[in-house]
Batch of 3 targets.
Target 1
Amino acid sequence: HNREQAEVRLANSLAAFDRLEAGGFSDPAELERVLGDLESVADDAGKDAAGVARLYRGSALYQLERYDEAEQELKSVIDRADETGTLFATAHSMLANVYQATGRTDEAVQVLDSLLDAPDTRVPADQTLLQIGQIYSEAGRDEEARENWQRVVDEYPNGSAANEARQLLKS
């Protein structure tokens, strides 16, 4: 019964998060409220729902610029998630964003490289390489950015990221 209630609370929390996201996260107080709801759900829910709640908590903490807490929450998701699942991959991508936001470019790239090396991951490698390139670009490391975008074009010419990589290489 508690798990069913936790699932309903999770659905409500995710809907509130989505509304906040659509509004550009302009209401930090409401985001703090959702953060608390997600913590409560993570404690009460089954493994999968708890993982989703923690992932969204990590995202909310990132939006609130509470990067240390976001890092811990996302690492917790990675440690508990199935390595072939979407939660595992999404948490890696978000953790890379946290590292990028705190100027830790090499750690951001390392997190994404580990995702590329993970067996049976469901994340498209072309999207991961594109993200690595964007991280390097934002850090002013243009040569490394271009190398990753070129890999997307060379290794995944028909992939979803190839057109974007081609545009970035032209700029």
Note: The chain has nine helices and no strands.
Target 2
Amino acid sequence: EELSHLSDLKSLFDLSLNNCPISDQGLKKICQLSGLEILNLGETMVTGEGINEFDNLSRLQTLYLRGTNLTDDGLRQITRSRSLRYLDISQTQVTFENLPELANLKNLTTLHATYCKATDLGLFSVSKIPNLQILALGTWGEGSCLTDHGMMYLTNLTQLRNLSLEGTNVT
């Protein structure tokens, strides 16, 4: 209910709700702020279901979903955000597998996906993001599913300038 008051802030372009108890229900109210360009929902209770509301955010360029329960299905919804340039989905359940829709993110230049469940096969989908310049896939410990095999897909990323694979099984 309290978020409904934000709808009066028509000039708001940057909203950070990191580590707030925002759920998918609250996200519906946030997505009424059509002028948002930067949205930080890190460490919230937002899931893929709430992301359906992002269609209203046509100016959104930067999105932080670090530490949420985002899955591949939720990421599929995000690919409809054509203006997105920066996406942080670190510490989520995303694998990137079977997501040809990632090619729709034509303006995305930066993708942070550290501590995700990214797989070698998932990198095939990532390699379809045409203007990706910065890619962070690092992880530490036994959780990495990335190996040398997945690196062959990254050769398609001709715009890539910065690549982080820290803690993966890449040799």
Note: The radius of gyration is 16 Å.
Target 3
Amino acid sequence: RNKDDPPMFPQEIMDDLFKPKLYKVRLYCLRGVALAKMDVGITGKPESSDPYLIVKLGKHVFNDRKNYVDDATDVDFYKFIEVDAELPGTSQLQVNVMDYDNIGSDDLIGKTTIDLEDRWFDGRWQDWGKENRMTEMGDNSVVRFDTKPVEARTLYLPGKSSSQGVLIFPT
């Protein structure tokens, strides 16, 4: 395109495209698998962690410390977290898996970041699951929303290149 060419879209459409809109973000965290061992036993060997979740999006923080799971490397979290978000806007949803400690500060087991704008504005992601949609209306009304695949996201720890475990989410 040449800078002298007319705009591809009218200015009203461009203004609307970049105007932030409010959305509900729903995060379902199902499981943590093969989480790194962060606790040290009396013999000095690594032992299972006591994992819990902290989820951050902008100023919103969900801290589930009170529901840590004692001595586990494979955890059924089954957590539902709902957050308000403006898109375009703050879109980096950070999920931290922490290790609860009675003494001293808790340790970061690993973290993963989900870019909400990438997902929301990606047509491929929008189209996933449409083939399963059902909206038949009648005496026995059936409604089934678009299904999304289950995603396994690797947890990383700054300064380490190896996986610290995996979180399982429906996307």
Note: The helical segments are 11-18, 116-120, 123-127.
